[in-house]
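Hi both,

Apologies for the delay on this - the queue was longer than expected. I finally got the S-adenosylmethionine-bound model through. Below you'll find the protein sequence and the ligand SMILES exactly as submitted, and right after that the structure tokens for the full complex including the ligand.
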Amino acid sequence: MAKNKKKKKTMAQRADRHALYQESVQDSEFELDFVQNTYKAIHKRKPQTLREDFAGTARSACVWTKRSKNNKAWAVDFDEEVLEWGRKHNYDKLKPKQRERVEFIQADVRTVETPSVDVVLAFNFSYWILKQRKDLLAYFKSVHKSLNDDGIMFLDSFGGSEAHSTQVEKHKLDGFTYLWDQNKYNALTQEMQCYIHFRFPDKSRMDKAFSYTWRLWGGQETDDLLREAGFSNVRFFVQMFDDDSGEALDEFEETREVIDHECWIAYIVAEK
Ligand SMILES: C[S@@+](CC[C@H](N)C(=O)[O-])C[C@H]1O[C@@H](n2cnc3c(N)ncnc32)[C@H](O)[C@@H]1O
């Protein structure tokens, strides 16, 4: 009689969804370079205090404290599970002195109270979870209040004809494939249901590792709301593409014009 063999776990079963997320969609180093350089270009000084809203694993907050002994960060998310992962995998890897300069806060970004900061980040389109105009406006107002007088909020946005449709984008990465699934789109309300899935070389899958129900806010609508919340200036820095290959470049240029693009992605820089 065959012995009872313990079934080997698949790659998907062994994988950690937060680690895969960080590898697939987050480049904190690049984002923080953009934040630092843009802030310095506007105010002729380096920002030091930063609040990461919708922080998830708080990766950017942790990287921020590593950049300078003068830097401090607050990471805000209402989900204890993801913050706990961030404590174990990002915070615990910092040096003791760096750890003293980063604080994790489990709270709603709309009501959280933190000391005034130079910079508030809300990246990876997380503010799109706020689908009602009044809710997004209230959030922007509360960020405005939390910023120093020369503070800046950094957000991101995407759009173009492909954004207003269902589609799946595949990206082959080191050891796995990341899929961005725009699964449902309501062309009337601009609400979208998106998922992140992962696939592995042994054919195993991690479906719906992350799920987002968003409103696809337009660039101009976001600009209007930020100004209504009190921001004095709002700028768009749009990602450039290589003219010949069509590949996205690591370059973002300030512009107000994106003519007839299938897909654009931009940083939004809102000055208090
Ligand atoms: C897409 S993840 C963003 C992670 C990371 N900041 C990034 O740039 O990739 C969105 C996070 O926002 C959190 N979140 C959603 N609504 C929130 C709210 N009202 N207050 C605090 N956190 C919220 C979720 O728990 C989730 O961890």
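Main takeaway for now: The chain has two domains: 17-159+216-271, 162-213.

I'll put the files on the shared drive as well.

H.
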